[in-house]
Amino acid sequence: MSRPRRRPRLIPPTGIWTLALLAGVALAGCAFLPGATDPAPARQRAQVVLSRWADAVAKAGANAAVTPIGELTGQVGVWEEAVGENNKEALMAGMVFSATPLGDQAPPDGKVAWQDGTTSTVPLLAAQQAIVAIENTTAAPCSDCSPLLATAARLTSGPIQTTRGPAIAPIWEFTLQGTAVRLTRVAIANPVVVAPDEVGSGLGLSIDAASGSVGGTELTVAFVGAPDPGDRPCGEDYTAEAVESPLAVVVIVTRHPHLTLGACSAVGARRTATATLAAPLGDRAVLDLQQGTPVPVVFAP
């Protein structure tokens, strides 16, 4: 995501401050980028990320074939002004309860369908289990919030993002007391989930998407980088290295800055880099080095 544009900083062409200002440009003009990657710590971090993912897959068991990406809880509609502030904070705090019992009986297995026509059968949560799952995803406690009360539940389906690309999956939809907004929760029971881990925030660049093919050994990742690949100040090139396991791939993106004098822009740009895999991608997840979480993958035909 780009930051607001700042007035460019001009560097005097001569003078005793030239070297010091050059360093200042690299840090100030390109401040939105982390430092260059030291390969050894990055590779060690990648192994930790792969190990955490293997643990999550083992915990999910039979559900590992479908791995949702991003938030599992959502909403349909916009909060009304009278209740919006409270309800938004209450949802972030996981303060969602059922006004009446919504049912503890899990529905029959559901189906997840991808755009290429492939499907996977998955066990589903009961409605009350979905409410409990929302309660257990507290992001920011709120001691002054009034809780959200679910009065009814309906099993439906809708779009989700997965490690294998966009899909249509079973979703619970809840009617809430006092608002027209409906709450949703992905209904897949015990999906593969890893919490974001900030330990690796100083290593490499954070990727947010990837593309490749099931049988291919080239994996292209996307990220926010320097605005220009050419010779202008703050321009950078990037290389990508893959660290792999049978279950996932972690991509390390390394910066190669262009150290030239001139004006710098602090506006980031969409950049990509391609890594060569030791084995075809298959259905393996692609994980971000910094947070250890999966990113969406677009599969070429």
State the helicity in percent bands.
Answer: 10-25%
The amount of beta strand, in percent, is: 25-35%
Outline: globular
Largest sheet composition: 7 strands, mixed
Secondary-structure class: alpha+beta
Overview of this protein structure:
The two termini are 28 Å apart. This protein is 17% helix and 32% strand. The strands form three sheets. Strands 1, 2, 3, 4, 5, 6 and 7 form a seven-stranded mixed beta sheet that branches. Strands 12-9-8-14 form a four-stranded mixed beta sheet, with no helix packed on it. It has helices at 18-28, 39-60, 84-92, 127-135, and strands at 73-76, 96-98, 110-114, 119-122, 148-162, 165-176, 182-186, 207-212, 218-225, 236-244, 248-257, 269-276, 285-288, 297-299. It has four helices and 14 strands. With 301 residues, it is α+β, with helices and mostly antiparallel strands. The radius of gyration is 23 Å and the shape is globular. A hairpin with a 5-residue loop joins strand 8 (207-212) and strand 9 (218-225).
Helices and strands in order, then pairings?
Layout: H1 18-28, H2 39-60, E1 73-76, H3 84-92, E2 96-98, E3 110-114, E4 119-122, H4 127-135, E5 148-162, E6 165-176, E7 182-186, E8 207-212, E9 218-225, E10 236-244, E11 248-257, E12 269-276, E13 285-288, E14 297-299
Parallel strand pairs: 2-5, 8-14, 11-13
Antiparallel strand pairs: 1-7, 3-4, 3-6, 5-6, 6-7, 8-9, 9-12, 10-11
